[in-house]
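Quick illustration, no need to memorize.
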Amino acid sequence: MRDVRPYFVPPLDSIDASDWQRLVDVEWEPLEAWVEEWDYRTHLRLRSSVGVRLTALRSTTGLMDGTPLFWALGWRATESRLVSDPVLSEVLDGDNALQLEVPPDRAGATILLTRRLVLGRNRVHARSGEPRWAGSVLWSDETMVRLTGHGSAFPTEIVDFRTIGRDPRASWYLELPSSPDVAAMGSFLLLINSADTVLVAAVSAGRRTSEAHRVLNDTMFEGVVEEIVRWAIARWSELSDCEADSAGASARILTGRILPDAARWTAPDVDSMALKAAVIAGARSIGFGRRLS
């Protein structure tokens, strides 16, 4: 269905938009449909380029009076409906370099990136068919990106549990931080027992993962999330004072997304099975764990 608006919009050949890119270490790479190595501490730093033939755009929309035009960049989290404040920049003739950052504690499992070209002020004397009101959208596009689920990452290491003194019958073990104040990076480590060759194959499959591998990974990540949430709940009163990049702050962000009412689960007599059910439901709602059809 065509997007029909009650005012003139620019012709398609007056705007040439490139795909989004994201910053990985120091290199810009194409933004894929999902970010495989994303976790709840990863800021998404994005850029794109949009070429504009400004004279053609203004003449076809009746905006030759010099009315300011702006880019309004933003995103919204699809499951929480949280919408970012727009990032505004003036529309220039020729190439327009646009940048956007998405904070991990607000993003959610899937986000919709938006680029809009909007009218910068009201036009009292606009003629019939011309854009009149500030904020009128002359051009826009949207890009869906999945941040969590089977494409997400967690620090892992495959080891022989017998050699490190872990239960050799266990498939995995999550090493948790010694203190909420330690740096988040590297303080959570998921150990995979090399003796469980099926799970090792599932973890190592990457993009070639089968449905059986996906089920194993998803079930394991439900358990991992539960471990982190229980660790955070046991220290909940301490975590609000932790530094932004600490293990405690990261665990609090994750727990808050999974259990919006996290404080109610801190009572010493809380029902353990009820907590487990709430964690699994919350984890699935943001993309971690098994997906039920």
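The mean pLDDT is 86.
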